[in-house]
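Lab notebook, bench 4. The sequencing result for the construct came back, and we need a structural model before the next group meeting so we can plan mutations. Quick request posted to the team channel:

Model the 3D structure of this chain.
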Amino acid sequence: MKASHAAHALEQTATPERVGTRTAARLAEVGALFTDDLAWIETELRKTTGSGPRSATDAARHLFSGGGKRIRPLAVLLTAACFGPPPASVRDLAVVAELVHLATLLHDDVVDDAPERRGKPAARLVWGNAVSVLAGDLLLTHALERTSAAAPALMPDLIATLRRLVDGEIVQLRGRVQLDVREETYFAVVRDKTASLFGWAARAGATVAGASATQIAALGEFGERLGTAFQLVDDLLDYEGDPKQTGKSLHTDLGEGKITLPLLRAIALDPSLARVVESARQGDVDASERLAGAVTAPIRDAVRARAREEAARGIDGLACLRESPARALLAAMARDLTERSA
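Done. Here's the predicted structure in token form:
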């Protein structure tokens, strides 16, 4: 299948401007295996985000129209393809993975008082916080209904994952009241709030494709490592990304009061910065600039290296799978995502 077909299927979600040239090329290569599947998934996402009462659907559609990398649906498709032609239910589970992700973004933007998402005003600014929360809730009900119909055996794992997503958000929110500069707390938030859904996506694809318990566990571990690496790079791009590519201004995380690994590493070198964080959270621009300046190139390099390490450890776990184009693309996608600039 021609790569141009895959690029067409992904053109609204993974352009070089949105994800960087190298990552866009890799996602197009992955898409060459799943052209029809990706087109179907996009159609279903468009339909589902518009299914329900307005203005909740308006808010959901607003977020969906901003695009996205669709990494979680691709993880479902690729992990299933490691075991042969994917069953029909894989498409539905790929949709579920993205619906849950979209729901968390709508909720996160309310919790974080975020002004923008994917280069556009956040839905909460257009329709209000209440509508945005309800839009996220609506997408979660769609995700649960679709999972129950397509693969009911996966419901317990999905519910446990949703619980982890909530737990991670709560711990992160608690950090705004009492500053916690321990890296173990940061990684606990990342594993629950971000990596858990990547892990579910990878396990879901493997499970419906008939993988063994050992293989399912290995792919779940791969997914969580990939999710952790993905978040580390996201945090890094708050300090060195191009706003035209990332869709958000530099130092947005700082303004929202998030304590990410680059900042934690800077505080470890200069504990006095902990006091500056509180001023930055109150809107002190000078304080934010001081914190941003403290996240030096060596710190950024170390965070990027940790992302590569997480991806590499996940890739090592793929050794229990037979060699296949899908396994090779999973590994390549993981490596490329750690090098992305958007």
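DSSP finds 19 helices and two strands in the chain.
Will bring this to the meeting.
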